[in-house]
């Protein structure tokens, strides 16, 4: 009759090894203080935005335009906004820490819902841009793009993230 003790030990050792390898070799988070404007420029040149009045959001308009995000959660940001006729936006954030980044990510989800309601009432043809906006969080960073080419935006952001690691 075989003892079950060695099988238990073997299972425990294999599980520990898998955990160790996963923990040490997992995805690395991005370094602090990356240049978000470079990513914004790449997105502007790679994605076909409909709005020709796309421009950086002036700081004095922040509270009126993107009040879902608490600026106290941010270390750096680049927000490029449409003139309001199209559901298009680039919003790139470096949060002060990972907990703040989680709040920023949720704020952007809330923002998407706000846009769906607003554009649904006035320009429902813009809702296609809001079906699956690009929203990626990596460590302290949150990247959001609303456009007619959200898949391309995700590809570019993921490629940029890979190059930063």
How would you describe the overall organization of this protein?
The model is unreliable at 7-26 (pLDDT under 50). α2 packs antiparallel against α5 (150-164). The protein contains five helices and five strands. β2 (74-81) and β3 (89-95) form a beta hairpin. The chain has one domain (30-164). With 165 residues, it is of the alpha+beta class. It has a five-stranded antiparallel beta sheet with strand order 1-2-3-5-4, sandwiched between helices.
Described by the principal axes of the CA atoms, the overall outline is: globular
User: In sequence order, what are the helices and strands, one letter per element?
Assistant: HHEHEEHEEH
Mean pLDDT: 85
Question: What number of domains?
Answer: 1
What key phrases describe this protein's structure?
165 residues, alpha+beta
